[in-house]
Amino acid sequence: MSDIIRQQAPVILAEIKKANNILLHCHPHSDPDSVGSALAMKFAVEQLGKKATVIRGDNEIPEAFEFPGVEAIIKKSYGEIDPKEFDLFIILDSSTPNMVSFKTPVIFPESMKTIVIDHHVNNAKYGSINCVDPSYPATAQILFDLFKEMGIKLNHDIALNLFMGIYTDTGGFKYAAVTSATFAAASELVSFAPDFAQTISAMENSNTKEKFAFISLALSSLKTYFSDKLAITYVSKKQFDDYKLDGEEYSPSEISSLLRTVKNFDISICLIESVDGKARMSSRSKDSIKFNVSKLAVALGGGGHKNAAGATIDLPLSEAIEKVVKTAEELYNF
């Protein structure tokens, strides 16, 4: 457990105890660390006798996320609620305010205190209280330690949500940030949630023929640069329309993660053209020391981790690709 967690746990607990109505959220294109962390925190603050509301954020929660409590998530984004109704907003797994919502400006009323809990290295520390520790591989693992310090009792629903966040954000315990503490946390969590394999199976075996159409479109555009060190794929809005696919349902991270498995690709990137004409980019690195993709994402207006990062580029798709290639060339001396 880090010193940051030990220092911040009593401060966060005090704020929760003072609050009457607590807001939680899932970030845009939410992943299991976002959803699992939000639901685990909801159960935790309810254990403390507080009212908590989780909003889904900008996008639908994937149907495959069969996590305890997922049915209670309100189908609204930050712009569709009145934040003045809440006196505390616990913001999880979100490095900047636009990770609360891309759709509308995110403004916090003075009457609402904000607590940011996150593990992204580029976190802007924009909360009233910031519990940010990039040494953790998942926000869910931060919560595991925080809950211990706060006296929250683990149960099946909290444990399963935390486990799913840790399992997925570590790539199934494959990524470099995984430590013995990660395995120790996972071991304790599955002792409370022995049915974890069923939840993983439901999530990982839920592909559709439409999903494979998306994958096929993305892979068909594959182009490599700098002697195959950089690989880029994309899917345009027109392609989504031609194939009658909703581009907002699909994540470029699935493609960039797939490309990372190719032996010679040091940096793998997928871009998806959104309905508003912007390009959503996901990047993956095979060697995060030589090729820290968080630097690339930050240079393009985004952020993330050394081996997995993303950005939304406010340019037409073709120009966005050119900018990505040029920026990568400058950053990594290709």
Q: What's the overall geometry?
A: globular
Helix fraction by DSSP (H/I, runs of at least 4)? 25-40%
Largest sheet: 6 strands, mixed
Q: What fraction of residues sit in β-strands? A: 15-25%
Order of helices and strands: HEHEEEEHHHHHEEHHEEHEEH
Structure summary, number of beta strands? 11
Protein structure class:
alpha/beta
**Number of alpha- plus pi-helical segments:** 11
Flag low-confidence runs.
Answer: none
First-to-last CA distance: 39 Å
Average pLDDT over all residues: 95
- The order of strands across the largest sheet is 6-7-8-9-11-10
What does the model show?
This protein has 334 residues and is of the alpha/beta class. 39% of the residues lie in helices and 17% in strands. The strands form 2 sheets. A 6-stranded mixed sheet has the order 6-7-8-9-11-10, with helices on both faces. Strands 2-1-3-4-5 form a 5-stranded parallel sheet, with helices on one face.
